[in-house]
Amino acid sequence: MDFNVKRLAADAGTLFSRAVQFTEEKFGQAEKTELDAHLENLLTRAECTKHWTEKILKQTEVLLQPNPNVRIEEFFYEKLDKKAPTRLNNHELLGQSMIDSGTEFGPGTAYGNALIKCGETEKQIGGAEREFIQSSAINFLTPFRNFLEGDFKTILKERKLLQTKRLDLDAAKTKLKKAKMADARALPLSSTPPPGDAGYVANVSFMVNFLHVKWLKAEQDLKMTQSEFDRQAEITRLLLEGISSTHAHHLRCLNDFVEAQMTYYAQCYQYMVDLQKQLGNFPSAFSSNNNQSTASGGASVSVPILPLSAPLTSTTGNASSGFTELQNFSGSRKARVLYDYDAAGSNELSLLADEVIMVSSVPGMDSDWLMGERGNQKGKVPITYLELLN
After folding, report:
1. What are the helix (H) ranges across 281-341?
2. How confident is the model at residue 304 (pLDDT cuts 50, 70, 90)?
3. Tens digit of pLDDT for each residue in 144-177?
4. For position 96, what pLDDT does the model report?
5. Number of helices and strands in the chain (H, E)
6. Nearest Cα residue to 96 out of 76, 61, 126
7. pLDDT at 313
8. Bridge-partner residues for 381, per DSSP?
9. pLDDT band of 331, cuts 50, 70, 90
10. H/E element, 22
11. Are 168 and 228 in contact (CB under 8 A)?
C-alpha cells in the first residue's frame, strides 16, 4: 500500500493543533472566534425545531399505538424492512367478541341481535381507526422522521465541519501571534551584533530570516483558514435558513393530521348515531335507557357536517367578519402574520411571523388569498397565515 508520509504527517499536525486549541479554549487560555448573532440564532432555532419535532413525533406514536410492546415490534420490523403482521385493533376485537356472543345467544333474540349490531359498529369504528392511523403515518409521522433522519443530520454534519474550520482558524491566529512575537524579539539581536563575531552575525541573520519566513507562512495559513471558515459558515447558514421551509412543510402536515383526525371522529360519531337509531327500534322493554334524562330512542339526532379542509387559524367573530368585509368591499386593513411563509412565485409575498402588513382584496382573486403590501413590496398572501387587526 502506497502511503503519503507527508500528507499523513500534515493531517496529524492539523489534528494536534485542533486538540490543543480546543483544550486551551476550555481552560480559558486561548481566544475563540464567535459566530455572528444571526448564525447563532439560526442554530438555536434549528435545535429547537429538532427537539420539538422529536417530542411531537414520540407523543403522536403513543397516541396512534398506546401499546409500547407493539411499537417496539413495529420498529424492528421497519428496521428489518419487513411488513409487520396484521392484527386486529381493540375495536375490532371487541366487535368480533360481540358478534360471536350474539350469535351464541341467537340473532332472533333481542339481546343477541343487539350484540351483533353493536359488534358490527365496533368493527366499523376499528376500520376507521386503521385508516386514520395509516393516513397519519404517511402524511404526518413520515415527514417528521424524514426531517430528523435527513435534513437535520445534514445540518449536524455541516455544523460539525464549521466547528472544525473554526478551530483551524483560531489555531492559525495563535500561530501567527506567536510568530510575530518571536520575530519581534529577534530583530534587536540582528540590529546590534557584537563586533568581530562573524559566526554570531551569520547565525542571527539565519534565525531572523527563518522567523520571518515562518511569520509569512503563518499569515498565508491564516488567510486560507479564514477563507475556508467563511465558506463553511455560508454553507451552514443557507442550510439553517431552510428551517423556515421545514416549518411551512410541517404546518401542511399538521393540517393533514387534523383533517384525518376530524374525519375519523366524524365517522365514529355517525356510526354511533346510526347504531343508536337501530337500538331504538327494539321494544321499549329491552331498549329503555337507565339514564331517564335521555330522550327516547325514536328522537332524531342531527349530525354536524364538518368541512374537511377547514383552515387551522381561528376565524371566530370579528376576524371572520373582517375577512368577509374586506373581500366584499374596497379598502385595506392591517394584519398580523401568524407564521413564516416562503413565496412560491414572483407574484407572492414572503412573510415573517409577528410582522404587521397591509392587506386588501383584488377583484377576481381566489377567496383564500389577499393582496399584501410591505413598504414597496407587494404580492399575494394566504388568508390562513393572517390575523386582521382592529
Report:
1. 284-287, 318-328
2. very low
3. 999 999 999 999 999 999 998 988 888 888 888 8
4. 95
5. 11, 5
6. 126
7. 42
8. 370
9. confident
10. helix 5-26
11. yes
Cα(385)–Cα(352) distance, integer angstroms:
10
H runs (alpha helix) in 192-308: 198-241, 243-280, 284-287
Cβ-proximal residues to 92 (8 Å cutoff; 6+ apart), any chain: 122, 123, 126, 127
CA distance 325 to 16: 69
Residue 29's φ and ψ, nearest 5 degrees, are -100, 0
Q: How many CA atoms lie within 13 A of 10 on its CB side?
A: 5
| CB-based contact 212:183 (threshold 8 Å) | yes
Report the alpha-carbon distance of residue 338 to residue 318 in Å, rounded: 16
Q: How far apart are CA 40 and CA 245, in angstroms?
A: 19
Tell me, what amino acid is at 352?
L
pLDDT of 143 over the 90 cut: yes
The most distant pair of C-alpha atoms in the chain lies apart, rounded to whole Å, by: 131
State what percent of residues in the chain have pLDDT above 70: 70
Grid cell locating 150: 435527513
Instruction: Answer yes or no: are the C-beta atoms of 332 and 364 closer than 8 Å.
Output: no
β-strands 386-388, 377-382 pairing: unpaired
Please give the single-letter amino acid code of residue 309: S
pLDDT score for 295? 42
How many whole angstroms separate alpha carbon 135 and alpha carbon 130? 9
Q: Are 344 and 359 in contact (CB under 8 A)?
A: no
Average pLDDT over residues 376-380: 93
For the segment 27-38, the average pLDDT, to the nearest whole number, is 78
pLDDT of 297 reads: 43
Nine cell digits for residue 311? 383552515
What Å distances lie between residue 9 and 16, 41, 228, CA to CA?
10, 38, 21
- Whole-model pTM over 0.70: no
- Rg (C-alpha) for the chain, rounded Å, is 35
Here the cell at position 118 is 353493536
CB 331 within 8 A of CB 362: no
Q: Side chain identity at 97, as an amino acid letter?
A: S
End-to-end CA gap in the chain: 76
CA distances from 383 to 68, 138, 342 (A): 41, 27, 14
Residue 12 pLDDT: 60
d(CA 188, CA 292): 108
Task: Give the amino acid at 217.
Answer: K
